[in-house]
Design brief:
- The chain has 279 residues and is mostly helical.
- It has one domain.
- The chain is built from twelve helices and no strands.
- The relative contact order is 0.12.
Length: 279
């Protein structure tokens, strides 16, 4: 009896690993086959890096503020924000695919599996985060050859921050996708979320400059979780840690993920209230 229970337990653990690998492999294949998704993920930040940063270089530099030990050029300052931008758009694109899968019926096949929904959602979240890190790696390589001065070990030191920020933004997108019933409605929600989060943050300009010009906008930036994701990446690129940013990112990741898991729960989630049923 005990041997049978042990075998069943071992099969269960193996099944979880197979399920995780399958979801991650599916997301990887989708990313490989959708080459335009990879190109568009790089075009947006590269436009800022090549054009806007070049234009602002002569009129806007950044004084000595943490984590920088000296005066830095504008393109160096905006690089962490552009990295976070890649992860933000990837999180929303991954959530868009969930809305599409739900409309096409693929989501129903996944959610009726014997695995817990929290495990399926976390597996999907891990897969989308891994894809975003690949996109960031490609962007950092291009930025390096463009002449952006980053520490040579920056990709290694920033990797934990990329995982945390990718999880936070992916969980946010997942939570939003649970409230969207139709695919055509998601584009408007994406624009309503992405652009305010990106521009009302420290991605493009230091918050002390924002505070001087508009205390109200500064207050909004301080409430924006994307700001703390940008700062966590910025400090991690230089091997430093922003404890406040880390706490906010971990807290918001937990909040968004728990909300998404509850929303995708057929007993009490948003899908039932919106007529989504088991889809």
């Amino acid at each position: 009896m005990s041997a049978s229970a042990t075998a069943s337990s071992g099969l269960s653990r193996g099944g979880y690993l197979i399920c995780l690998r399958g979801i991650m492999w599916r997301e990887a294949l989708r990313f490989v086959h959708q080459r335009e998704r990879f190109v568009s993920a790089l075009v947006r930040p590269l436009v800022w890096l090549f054009i806007f940063a070049a234009g602002f270089r002569q009129i806007l530099g950044v004084s000595i503020i943490p984590p920088y030990d000296t005066y830095v050029l504008y393109e160096v300052y905006v690089t962490p924000g552009l990295i976070a931008m890649i992860q933000l758009f990837n999180g929303m694109q991954s959530s868009l695919s969930m809305v599409y899968d739900r409309e096409m019926g693929n989501m129903r096949m996944l959610l009726v599996s014997p695995f817990p929904r929290w495990f399926l959602l976390i597996s999907k979240l891990l897969a989308s985060t891994a894809v975003s890190i690949l996109q960031v790696a490609a962007f950092m390589l291009v930025a390096y050859f463009w002449g952006v001065d980053l520490p040579p070990w920056s990709f290694v030191s920033v990797l934990p921050a990329l995982v945390l920020v990718g999880l936070m933004l992916g969980a946010l997108g997942m939570l939003l996708s649970s409230a969207i019933k139709q695919l055509e409605n998601f584009a408007g929600v994406m624009n309503f979320v992405i652009f305010p989060m990106f521009f009302a943050s420290s991605a493009l300009y230091p918050l002390w400059l924002v505070q001087q010009s508009s205390p109200v906008v500064y207050f909004i930036c301080r409430l924006n979780p994307f700001t703390y994701g940008v700062e966590l990446i910025r400090f991690a690129l230089y091997g430093k840690l922003d404890v406040v940013a880390l706490a906010v990112v971990v807290g918001m990741t937990t909040l968004f993920l728990v909300g998404a898991i509850l929303a995708y729960d057929p007993a009490r989630g948003l899908l039932v209230r919106r007529g989504g049923g088991s889809g």
